[in-house]
Amino acid sequence: MNKDNYIHTPYNDEWIAQRADPFVYRHTDGTCYFTASVPAYDRIILRAANDLGGLVHAEEKTLWVRHESGPQSTHIWAPEIHYLFGGWYIYYAAGDKDDIWNIRPYVLHCKGQNPMKDEWEELGMMQAADSDEFSFHAFSLDATVFEHRGEWYYIWAEKTGVGRQISNLYIGKMAAANKLCTDQVLLTTPDYDWERVDFWVNEGPAILKHDGKIFLTFSASATGACYCMGMMYIDENADLLDPHAWTKLRHSVLKTDEEKGIYGPGHNCFVKAEDGVTDLCVYHARPYDEIIGDPLYDPNRHARIMKVMYDEKGFPVFVYQKVEETEYL
């Protein structure tokens, strides 16, 4: 960390250090699981604890290590652990040492019912629907899954176009844990200035349900201080595969705050607090803005956590909180 440029504030102490793209999952038995991208981008790790606070010092187990060559040999990014279709699955992205940006989405499956102790196996790339000729043929990453009214949906980022390309978000319905049954539907493309800094990017989707609406947060722009969070929403009774049923907010909902010493917030997830009611947003950010070299390889994107507030219309509001205000963990 660049100590000369690091200003400590009551707001920028990390929750879990040097873990980017954090993902927390609370299972039906109350157990909390944590996974994230590690600075070396070379493996998938998992922690487990009886509560969220316990994740900080929980033993971290390596579940899977990158291949030595070929597909899945570099850039192991943004793992998420989910329980669906009766089993444990981890969704992640990986590249190829010989073509480091040839990144695709992959799936791991736990052979047993204990994700910390049982063996994991590779299921290969996520599979598009048989009728879909477009999905997962280009740079694809940051997949998340969620259930709605008995059906499972998969949202991911994929680049399209020529040159530096544009990263969009797509959604599809799932037939199985590693296969879609509908063609891709475009949810959002980088339309606004805050989504187009250095790179035109929409990525890192996360789902939050509240008061009859489904909210989709996502990350935008390059991975430095310009990285920020946007949001879309849809009525819970609408067709999730109808792109016109979604509404995208004009402005970002979480961005760099220099006074508080929080830079480039993004790639978040949501989890319930210990009371089972309060929504928490887990995200990553740096405590400084001056980065030597490519921001992507700076290790100090730390996992952080905040309580989600709601306005009078029932929309989530994201406000940085002092560390001592996170006692709801």
Question: What does this entry show, briefly?
Answer:
This protein has strands spanning 20-26, 32-37, 43-49, 61-65, 71-84, 87-96, 99-110, 120-125, 140-148, 151-160, 166-176, 179-180, 185-188, 202-210, 213-220, 228-235, 247-248, 263-272, 279-286, 302-310, 316-318.
Question: Topology, please?
Answer:
Blueprint: E1 20-26, E2 32-37, E3 43-49, E4 61-65, E5 71-84, E6 87-96, E7 99-110, E8 120-125, E9 140-148, E10 151-160, E11 166-176, E12 179-180, E13 185-188, E14 202-210, E15 213-220, E16 228-235, E17 247-248, E18 263-272, E19 279-286, E20 302-310, E21 316-318
Antiparallel strand pairs: 1-2, 2-3, 3-4, 5-6, 6-7, 7-8, 9-10, 10-11, 11-12, 11-13, 14-15, 15-16, 16-17, 18-19, 19-20, 20-21
Structure report:
It is a single chain. The chain is an all-beta fold. 0% of the residues lie in helices and 49% in strands. Strand 14 (202-210) and strand 15 form a beta hairpin. The model has no long low-confidence stretch (mean pLDDT 95).
Report Rg. Answer: 18 Å
Mean pLDDT: 95
The number of distinct helices, counting runs of at least 4 residues, comes to: 0
Structural shape: globular
The low-confidence parts are none
Q: In what range is the share of β-strand residues?
A: over 45%
Order of helices and strands, N to C? Answer: EEEEEEEEEEEEEEEEEEEEE
